[in-house]
Every structure is written in C-alpha cells, then in structure tokens.
Amino acid sequence: MNAFISVVGQDAAVNLLQSAIAKQQIAPAYLFVGPSGIGKSLTAQAFIEALFCHGLSEADALVTKQRLRDRNHPDVLWIEPTYSHQGQRLTAAEAAEAGLKRKTPPQIAISQIRDLNPFLGRPPLWANRSLVAIDQAQTMAEAAANALLKTLEEPGKATIILIAPSVSSLLPTIISRCAVVPFYRLGTEAMAKVLKRQAYGNLLERPEILALAQGSPGEAIAAWEQMQAIPPNLLEKLATPPQTWRSALELAKDVDKILDTEAQLWLIDYLQQSYWQKNYPVPLLQALETARRQLLSYANPRLVWEVMLMGMCA
C-alpha cells in the first residue's frame, strides 16, 4: 500500500520524496516547510514508513508499519516541543492530560537535542539508517539550534527531518544543510476532503473558522476545538476593543486567569481575523501582532494583555 495515501493536497512534496526513495538518493537532512496543519508531520510519518518498508517482504513491512505507528521503532526518534515539569519533559498533549496550565509555550530544549548524540552514535538496529524528526523546529532556543547545527554537520548513517512553518524561522546555517521541501495551503476541494475524512465536515459551514484556517485543515479543527474551550462571554467582551482602562485591566485579568499561553496565542489570531473583517483601524491589528511576538518571547502574559488592551482605549 502507498504510504502517502493519507496525504492530501501536497503532490509536489510527495512526488519529490517518492522519487528520492525510488532512486535511493536520500538527503542527510530535510526541511519540511509550510503553514501548520497542512500535513507536514503526516508526510514525515509517511516518508519514514515508505523509506523503512522499501524492499521489505510483506510480513516484515507489516511489523515495521505497526512499530512506526506505535512510535516504538528503535531507529526512529521523534522530537517535539515540551514543558519542563518536576524534572520531567512533557509534550503539550501530556501537559494537557495532566491538567497543567502553563504560562509559556512549549519549547525544544537543548537537552532534547543533546539526546541525539547517543541515538545517532550507535548503528541502526533494524533499518539501513536512523531517522530523526524534529517537529516545530522553530521553537528551539538559540543554544539548542547551535547544538543541532553540529549534529547536522556529521549526522552519520542517519537522516534528520526538520518541520517548521517558514524558512525564516530557522538559522540560515541550519537551512543551508537541508534539502527544503515546500508545503502549501490546501485548496477548497482538498480542504473539504480532509475535514470530512476527520469527521469535521460541519466546519465547512462555518465561514469564520475557514477564514481563520486559510487553507489549513489542522488549523480549522484546532480553531473549532479552541473556540469551544473559551467561555462565550469572554469572546463576546473581546469582540470590540475595551472603552475604559478599568474594563481593559479586568479583561486582561480574565484572559490570563482562564487561558494558558497557547490558548492566548490562538485568541490573538482569532481577534486579528475578527477585527480585520470589521475594518477596525490598522493600529489595533498591529497591537495584536505586537502582543503575539511578546507572548512568543515569554513575556508576562497578563502584562502583555494589559498593555495591549489599555492601548486600544487610547
């Protein structure tokens, strides 16, 4: 079976990767680049499956596919942003499961990059190469990025896949060592196909969700789920800029108390789209963008919202 069968709307990327496998011309490092929620991680999983199953018997391929899906293949290391909690590193999903409310977005720590050394230092056990996938690579701090650069210079018998939203989000020295594979936002037909496949066909009738997603099924689903988690009265209060400093301070307090930083970042996206559709002045949209950058820079969330909302009152 074609490992890429579940990838929709990314024919150029799939053709490039299939050709590399067929010719056995696999690059030491790839950069899968494009907006979130359009299939980059799914394609990375499919690429690993196709690469590892190439030339195997049907029985061995079935075992390999199952191990890959269970994420317990000895020659694959999947790295994603984490939180540090009581000496442990938790992914965003694990933190949510544990009921942890975090004040900063998850990040790929230097310790995670250092874990590559022992993994890549041993020969692959089952496959003919080791494979590392680094999801949301743009969340690496500078020290982690520099540590990765050293690994990219001598990856050994391995291939490293970086997954990021844009080329500009990574160090130029890292980009120069990768084969860049671009991914694009989905068209209307492909978008509908993915949403229906994921049982979210109802979102096709929500123009505000589709406008926010801009051709990203993953973003559409995340937006819908996030919207359900935000109290309707809070969204209603933020539908228009506050009129007084007092109401601005109260709103900032509510946002910080109710929402974690990831939800706050989504809320800023939602407000940008909403305010733009209402033809609000450009300075309001710029204030939201400034707040987004500050949250991503790990500034105090409540202070960010206070400054932004009070500025809207001026």
TrEMBL record:
Q: Name one Pfam family in it.
A: DNA_pol3_delta2
By its UniProt entry, which NCBIfam families does this protein fall under? PRK07399.1
EC code(s) of this entry: 2.7.7.7
Task: Cite the entry's keywords alphabetically.
Answer: Nucleotidyltransferase, Transferase
Name the record gives this protein = DNA polymerase III subunit delta
Where does this protein come from, organism-wise? Answer: Geitlerinema calcuttense NRMC-F 0142
GO-annotated molecular function: DNA-directed DNA polymerase activity
Q: May I ask which residue range the UniProt record assigns to the signal sequence?
A: none
Q: Does the keyword ATP-binding apply?
A: no
Please name the SUPFAM superfamilies in this protein's record.
P-loop containing nucleoside triphosphate hydrolases
* Lineage summary: Bacteria, Bacillati, Cyanobacteriota, Cyanophyceae, Geitlerinematales
At the top of the EC hierarchy, this enzyme's class is transferase
Annotated InterPro entries: DNA_Rep/Repair_Clamp_Loader, P-loop_NTPase
